[in-house]
Amino acid sequence: MDWLLERFLSAGENAAFIHHGTPFTYCQMAERISSLELQLQQAGVGHHDTVVVLADYAPEVVCMLLALVRLRAIVVPMTRGSVIEEGEVLGISGCTRRIAFAPDGIAWEMETHSVSVTNPLIAEFRQTKSPGLVLFSSGSTGKPKGMLYDFWRVMDRFRVQRAPVVAVPFLLLDHFGGINTILAITSSLGTVVTTEDRLLPTICAAIEKYKVDLLPTTPSFLTMLAATDLPKRYDLSSLKRITYGTETMPQATLDRIRERFPEAELQQTYGLSEVGVLRSQSRADGSLWVRIGGQGFETQVRDGILWIRSEFRMLGYLNAPTGFDDAGWFNTQDRVEVDGEWFKILGRVTDVINVAGQKLYPAEVEDVILQLPNVVDVVVKGEKHTLLGQIVVAHVALSESEPLPALRARVRSACRSKLTDYKVPAKVVLMEAAMYSARFKKIRK
């Protein structure tokens, strides 16, 4: 990765990060990577090591990850908001070293932390002496899966330098989208603006203060933002592009965000941890149709399900059979509609609700309910039923208190006017607990 260090040095005093209000330049990045590489090498760290790094976004953390890459170690990023427990991570991936950063992202300690795991995929990969990356699925559809990548292959797609941006990273470092975001911003010599938390006011304040022009986020975050007056209280006019992905976007949320940010480009992204993040382009008509692909990616649709073949794919699961067929195609489990070169993502097959043999996707019901006054957000789930198999249940969050019978009547009336009967919620309940994961995705299970 000499090409990346040379690029960093060429940017000199340009800010790579603004961390806790303090700039950290690309020259400092290059110097710190080299310094950490030497320090780790002297401690005996090398390609034989699997290193857990417990941290969140910070320049020192990113420098540490890149120093470990240069030493060809296998890196396992974790955050304190990780969706799975550290013990479960170590039980699947193993570990020889553990580096834990303080909450400020500056001070860190390394300890020998030997957790021996016999894994044929890792053993075979170590023979290549390439740096590795291990990330974990959220486990929302079952046991979390450990995914192994060749870190050099992940980085290769960023050799072509793109236009620099100022961005607030949203997805965490233990998520492929988080790693992808950091590499995309820094390889293009943009600026990463870190925040102390991911609360709505904190993100908006950072956008205003540092003139952020790119916000990569999730539909759930945008739904919450659209339900507030924050776009009026803060100057968010610097935003040139808002990207969203990882889950289905309700059309109602997209319409509200377009209204509040008329000058910003809204771009739907698409990617999976197993195959990487594809290049994408949203159709200009304000709909949810998107064109995806790009160099290194191929797409095809089989029986309404999207399949992807990727040069940037994971090498395999550590604790599950490979998800690829013999020709290297991966079943995304996403059902899609097709209009020429455009796709519309309907939802995951695993999220389908089956009411007496008739199937529906939660997003189509959520979109109707989100259009109602006083509704901030909604999560639609399937609930087991003795006779019907499942029934539709809508968990609704309100901006102001409202009698539950009145809310139920409004929701059912709106759904009956736009949906077939079996899609109308049999139950409407108030959202009493957080319905989002640490990755700001709706929890449907």
Automatic annotation (TrEMBL):
MF terms in GO: medium-chain fatty acid-CoA ligase activity
UniProt domain AMP-binding enzyme C-terminal: residue ranges: 364-433
InterPro entries: AMP-bd_C, AMP-bd_C_sf, AMP-binding_CS, AMP-dep_synth/lig_dom, ANL_N_sf
Database matches in Pfam families: AMP-binding, AMP-binding_C
Superkingdom of origin: Bacteria
GO terms under biological process: fatty acid metabolic process
Domain named AMP-dependent synthetase/ligase: residues: 13-80, 123-280
Keywords assigned by UniProt, alphabetized: Ligase
Entry's family note: Belongs to the ATP-dependent AMP-binding enzyme family.
Protein name: Acyl-CoA synthetase (AMP-forming)/AMP-acid ligase II
